[in-house]
Design a protein that fits this description.
The chain contains nine helices and no strands. The protein has about 120 residues and is mostly helical.
Length: about 120
């Protein structure tokens, strides 16, 4: 198959495509996460997450994903991974935590999988 013949919008199972439509859906969530560049904003969020959700106009799916601290749910709700990294940092979630979420494994099982892959 030639590159120009490839359908770039072919769904990939388990993958949320971040396109213009998802950017519009996730605007409030991403704007909130962008605010976490400021230490003051992070403090405000941690003091009252629900009020912070309201301040930015998150929808219920976005609020619940944040309450769950689940990056995949946030992506499905329109979150962009680059902005969500700011959110993950507030809760000290590292790449192994996020990888475990993505694979449906516990963090320890995911770390063990990585160790074995390195052998």
């Amino acid at each position: 198959m030639e590159f120009e013949d490839f359908d770039h919008h072919t769904p990939i199972e388990g993958t949320t495509l971040f396109d213009g439509e998802m950017a519009m859906i996730g605007y409030a969530l991403n704007k909130m996460c962008y605010s976490f560049n400021s230490a003051e904003a992070r403090e405000q969020y941690l003091a009252n997450p629900e009020a912070y959700f309201e301040k930015f106009g998150l929808n219920e799916a976005q609020k619940q994903a944040c309450r769950n601290k689940n990056v995949l749910e946030m992506i499905a709700a329109g979150g962009n991974i680059y902005y969500l990294a700011k959110f993950a940092g507030i809760y000290k979630l590292n790449m192994q935590d996020i990888g475990a979420q993505q694979t449906g494994m516990s963090v320890e099982d995911f770390k063990e999988k990585l160790r074995k892959a390195g052998d």
